[in-house]
Write a structure and sequence with these properties.
Length: 165
């Protein structure tokens, strides 16, 4: 597959590149990229921001207790697309981010949190969230509980855990 460094390429445009991995270019002929080849070529190098956003998506999903299979339906994604997003191999769209925020009880800023820290590409793994993020997720769930009795019970449980040493 060709590595297209010029992001200005459009599908069907002429490509002047050397063949690699068994792709033959015909000398003296115009060689064109299809939509699929262009997309694969451009996204073959993982962008560090996409990787960070994907890691944050995975961390938020796991912290909320969603399996990949449980998240895809309400978010309107396929399991393969979710995997590509979480691995940073595909850039998340604004529509996908909006739906994921609704399902996960998150904000768009949650996906970029920690991006400008000293370790820019370290991204969280697993359920590693800050106390503020955990608090925001807990508050979103707490607000969703309609039964006042259940909310009081949850407060009592939290108070009991807080008293433990």
């Amino acid at each position: 597959m060709w590595k297209v460094k010029n992001q200005g390429f459009q599908p069907g445009c002429a490509v002047n590149a050397r063949a690699s991995r068994g792709v033959d270019l015909v000398p003296g002929r115009e060689n064109r990229l299809s939509h699929r080849e262009l997309r694969v070529s451009i996204m073959s190098d993982v962008n560090p921001i996409d990787k960070h956003v994907g890691a944050r998506l995975r961390a938020l999903r796991e912290a909320r207790g969603f399996s990949a299979e449980a998240l895809v339906r309400p978010a309107g994604l396929s399991i393969d697309r979710l995997e590509r997003l979480e691995d940073g191999r595909e850039r998340i769209s604004v529509d996908d981010m909006r739906r994921l925020c609704e399902v996960l009880g998150a904000t768009p800023a949650d996906f970029f949190r920690g991006l400008n820290e000293e370790r820019p590409n370290s991204g969280p793994t697993g359920g590693d969230l800050s106390i503020e993020e955990e608090g925001r997720l807990l508050l979103a769930d707490f607000r969703a509980i309609e039964d006042a009795r259940k909310r009081r019970m949850l407060l009592m449980i939290a108070a009991a855990f807080a008293r433990e040493k």
